[in-house]
Write a structure and sequence with these properties.
Structural class: mainly alpha
Order of helices and strands: HHHHHHH
Helix content: over 70%
Radius of gyration: 20 Å
Number of helices: 7
């Protein structure tokens, strides 16, 4: 890679970071205009925006460092999204099983994006598998903690009401995952 390529990549990353800062500034300005306490409501953006910046930097960087940055960016972004949902629903107890989304699905999204952007089917496939495994783990753990243990305040043993739905969703995800991931194989 010569200096011109490095300069172009830096300017691309600089433009992306500048765009993110402008977007974040507009969100803060809009919150102040309607007298909304942005810090109380939108604080997960302070996790999501750096995650997206890492993801963008990883997609713009070449080689293994770019793959690692994109994977870490996917994890940080997913952590911010999970925190946003938890903040909106006041259900921070879901961390008991939401870590599967953050660590496994987030990493899978980063790898999948790198694979798609760079035309690397091996990375896209491994990212797809990570996303599928993470979603399945999340669903299994969610059913266990919400229905069997009852961390959400529901009485323990109310699983009969949700068991059939969870079984159907799980079976559907397995079939969809096999179809989507099987279609990419030669």
């Amino acid at each position: 890679m010569d200096n011109n390529d490095a300069t172009r990549r830096w300017r691309g990353g600089e433009a992306a970071l500048g765009g993110l800062l402008v977007l974040l500034g507009l969100v803060v300005l809009a919150g102040q205009a309607v007298d909304l306490e942005v810090g109380r409501v939108a604080w997960p953006l302070f996790v999501i925006v750096p995650g997206l910046a890492l993801l963008g930097l990883g997609l713009a960087s070449a080689g293994r460092p770019g793959e690692v940055l994109a994977t870490v960016g996917g994890v940080v972004t997913m952590a911010g999204v999970v925190l946003g949902v938890q903040n909106a629903t006041d259900r921070f107890d879901t961390w008991a099983y939401a870590w599967a989304l953050v660590l496994v699905v987030g990493a899978g999204i980063g790898r999948w994006l790198v694979g798609v952007v760079r035309g690397r089917s091996d990375l896209a496939a491994s990212g797809g598998w990570l996303m599928a495994v993470g979603l399945a783990g999340f669903l299994v753990l969610a059913v266990f903690f919400e229905v069997v243990v009852g961390i959400g305040g529901r009485p323990v043993g109310s699983g009969g009401r949700y068991g059939l739905a969870a079984l159907m969703i799980g079976a559907g995800l397995v079939l969809l995952g096999r179809r989507l991931l099987g279609a990419r194989r030669p």
